[in-house]
Structures are given as structure tokens and as C-alpha cells.
Design a protein that fits this description.
This protein is of the alpha+beta class. It has one domain: minor pseudopilin epsh domain (minor pseudopilin epsh fold, 3-Layer(bab) Sandwich), CATH 3.55.40. 24% of the residues lie in helices and 34% in strands. β11 and β12 form a beta hairpin.
Length: 197
């Protein structure tokens, strides 16, 4: 009888330990998604500051700008070199890439948010209407920062939210904030932290 009690207690403790382990694993996965998303934005900023050359028509050149396109429908961040588009002038300053045909923008890296995690964009502390995509640009050498959708992003910072669950009451969330002055990505647990004095 004592053996059955001991085995029962061990089973209960094992179940509790496994539940805690699963919760910890989910938390580590979420932190990894935040870190990876922040790092890809830092990567494109570093490319701009260092004038990273890319291949264009067989030559190594410095792009006009270095960009990051945050696609909120695919939960994908694409960093690219914005090149001169000889066939369609006016495409400079936009993310212009089509896998079905030759494009002048050069994709440098992509980050796909893990299944279950989503991206959202914010103008200051307000989520953009329709959860619009966002394209950020950094100038070569200076790293000067701008946002393509300037009519949408009018506040002193823009933010990318990474969340799990429902947008109105997420299970987990974190924000990558891009201040218009520097464009250096910083991570915050809440946008309210930025409005408090």
C-alpha cells in the first residue's frame, strides 16, 4: 500500500513538473521571436551604417536605401536593398519585389514569425487602422531613419507588436519601438511605458 502512495505522489509531482516545463518552453520561444525580430531590424540598420554592398546587374554597389518591410498579413519581416528601378522609375523608396520576375530590390534576409505569433503595427500608442504594413528605411552611411507611410505614422515613434493569441487580449505581447529620431529598435513590454513621465 505504501508503494502505491509513493508512486501516486511521484506521478502528481511529475505532472506538475512537466506543466511548468512546457510553460517555460513557450516563454523561451516567445523571447526568441522578440529577439529575432529586433535583430533583423538592427541588421538592416547596421548594413546602412556600414554601406554594405549588394550585387546588382553583376556589380557590387551600395543601395539607394536599406529597408525593412513588415508584412502584417504574412507575419514576415523582409530586409532589402532599395535599388534604382530602371524599368519603372518611381519604384525607388518602396519595397518592389516579385519572385515571378526580375526585380531591382535585393532581398538581404527575412524573418518569419513562428506559427501562433502575429505582427501588428502602431503609430505611437495606437494600432494602425486595418493593421497596415510598414516599410522603414535607413540611409547609407548616416543611418538616417524614415518611414515610407508617413501619412499613417505621424507620432514620435512607430512600433511593431509581436503577440500570441487575440490582439485585443493577447496571451503574450512585446513591442519593438522605432523612434523617429534614431530608428534604433528598442524592446518594450508595453507602449504605456513610453507615455509615463
Amino acid at each position: 500500500m505504501e508503494l502505491i502512495v509513493v508512486v501516486g505522489v511521484m506521478a502528481i509531482l511529475s505532472i506538475a513538473a512537466i506543466a511548468g516545463l512546457i510553460k517555460s518552453q513557450d516563454q523561451f520561444k516567445f523571447r526568441g521571436a522578440i529577439k529575432d525580430s529586433t535583430n533583423i531590424i538592427r541588421e538592416i540598420r547596421t548594413y546602412a551604417l556600414s554601406n554594405k554592398q549588394v550585387q546588382d546587374s553583376g556589380k557590387m554597389v551600395v543601395p539607394l536605401e536599406y529597408g525593412a518591410y513588415i508584412d502584417t498579413t504574412k507575419n514576415l519581416i523582409t530586409i532589402f536593398g532599395d535599388m534604382i528601378d530602371k524599368s519603372t522609375p518611381g519604384n525607388e523608396g518602396k519595397f518592389n519585389y516579385d519572385v515571378t520576375k526580375a526585380s531591382n530590390d535585393v532581398i538581404l534576409n527575412t524573418y518569419q514569425a513562428p506559427t501562433g505569433y502575429k505582427l501588428a503595427t502602431y503609430n505611437g500608442t495606437t494600432q494602425t487602422t486595418g493593421n497596415k504594413p510598414m516599410t522603414v528605411f535607413y540611409q547609407p552611411t548616416t543611418g538616417e531613419f524614415s518611414i515610407l507611410e508617413t501619412l499613417i505614422f505621424t507620432e514620435r515613434f512607430a512600433a511593431i507588436e509581436i503577440y500570441q493569441g487575440n490582439i485585443t487580449s493577447p496571451d503574450r505581447q512585446s513591442f519593438i519601438v522605432l523612434f523617429k529620431v534614431s530608428g534604433n529598435p528598442e524592446t518594450f513590454g508595453s507602449l504605456q511605458e513610453l507615455t509615463e513621465n
